[in-house]
Amino acid sequence: MAKDRILIVAEEQSSRDALRSILAPEAYELLEAQDGEEALARLQEFDAQVVLANVHLPRMSGVTLLKRAKEEGLRAVFLMMTPSSGVEIAIEALKAGAENYLMVPLEAASVLVFVEKALEKARLINDARNLRERFRLEGIVGGALELQAILEVLQRAANSKTAVPATVSEPRPLTRESWGFVPGASLHEIEHEAIVRTLEMVSGSTTRTAEILGISVRKIQYRLKEYGTAARHPVQAAPSLARSTSGGGHES
Known about the structure:
By secondary structure, the protein is of the alpha/beta class.
């Protein structure tokens, strides 16, 4: 089984060594970079699932690195590291697409928790991407194998601590009957049902739903309007920034 890949980006060797000492016992595949330019080059060849990057870096800031990675279609989920004086920059990174941030000095337990949550999201995004690849052709009929693949991805979403807020303690069992799918349903019908059910799981967040299903927020809004339906929870147009956790990070 392939190891989870993590890129550590920090100017100081001592900082990279400290993170490596925390992460190495977890058997991750680790790579390092000391500035933003080197990190971008490493990402292009290493295909990391998670990037742990300082907000302040030589040659290219952590936020610029994040934006460049997104522009180039790189898959990595970003966790930013910042001193208390750099919280505003960390929030800017969240708006640019970072998953979370950690406060320096780092606590080993917090690093491990946030890295695992970021890896969960990376796996989910990868599963959704693979699923979309299977359904690129229009008009495909949702037979048993295709339907089961969709249910499996949504089950991962329902069980994911990253994708589903803590308030959702008992997600709906994902069966064909409970989700309203029937043999022979078109992909269009399956897509609509998946949107509605996923919105319910994430308390109406269109951004979370878009991440889970791998479609745009605009398409979600269009589908809901087209069918004249809505999720059980009020739809949220954009995510709100949650409070910082006592473990030194920002919980989303």
